[in-house]
Design goal:
By secondary structure, the protein is of the alpha/beta class. It has 8 helices and 16 strands.
């Protein structure tokens, strides 16, 4: 019987710098997650942190990590060949079966692009899986842009709007992602669409409101939360909001539920 909370030592295969503060770690493992799930990454005597899977393949997983605390700072000291401990995968991922044959709108802010990267790559590799993809992805500034090669690749296959909050960059728009919601042709989609929103809580709040204002039905909107998860199995209560355990009931929630998940 597998122990669902026992960390497993795994070799780091490569480390790639994405931006000024983000690195992507490829780790050797046979764990097979669903798009949108997360794992607990840990270092003995230091601690552990919940990190979404940004990409995966046969025998490996990738995690795009921003240095924001003790555990991630220590992970940033690791190099290829070193060991990282993993446990998971946990939580409910994106309902990709529900997305089949539909027009999918994905709106991300900053590192919120990481939890949808593997799904976007699937849409790109399997062009018949969905009817169309509209991707609006925003970053604070040029130094914060991640997945540059993927962004270029997706622009060739999807309808894309890439934005920076204030900086000027050739081919990019200026402004918050919520400012471009009106350009999504919801009136042309009929009922065949789904919307995915991932980013900092304020970004998700105002983007969700803007999407609804522009004609999207609440039940067709999905969000991912990464709020203070600790044990990942619903025992510690650290991520609890009222009766909801983010680690068990999420991290992916339908907007009809997500709009009430406020601390």
């Amino acid at each position: 019987m597998n122990n669902i909370v026992k960390p497993i030592p795994c070799e780091i295969l490569s480390v790639n710098r994405e931006s000024l503060h983000e690195y992507t770690y490829r780790v050797k493992t046979d764990i097979k997650p669903e798009h949108g799930q997360f794992l607990q990454l840990s270092i003995p005597k230091i601690g552990e942190a919940p990190i979404s899977v940004s990409s995966f393949g046969d025998g490996w997983l990738e995690f795009t990590i921003r240095s924001v605390g003790k555990v991630t700072d220590e992970i940033f000291r690791k190099e290829a060949g070193d060991t990282l401990f993993l446990r998971g995968a946990y939580g409910k991922g994106w309902p990709t079966d529900q997305f089949k044959g539909k027009n999918v709108v994905v709106i991300t802010g900053g590192t919120g692009l990481a939890p949808v990267k593997s799904m976007l790559n699937m849409f790109c590799d399997q062009p018949d899986f969905v009817k169309s993809v509209t991707l609006i992805s925003g970053f604070k500034n040029e130094e914060g842009i991640i997945f540059k090669n993927d962004l270029d690749r997706w622009a060739k296959h999807f309808n894309t709007i890439y934005t920076l909050d204030k900086d000027q960059k050739e081919g990019w728009r200026v402004g918050f992602v919520s400012e471009f919601i009106s350009e999504i042709p919801f009136d042309q989609f009929g009922e065949d669409y789904e919307v995915v929103i991932v980013g900092p809580p304020p970004m998700m709040k105002f983007t969700g409101l803007a999407v609804v204002k522009n004609g999207a039905a609440e039940e067709k909107i999905w969000m991912s939360f990464e709020r203070k998860m600790s044990c990942a199995v619903g025992k510690c209560g650290h991520c609890r909001i009222d009766e909801t355990y983010v680690c068990l009931d999420g991290p992916v929630f339908n907007y009809t539920k997500a709009k009430y998940l406020v601390d």
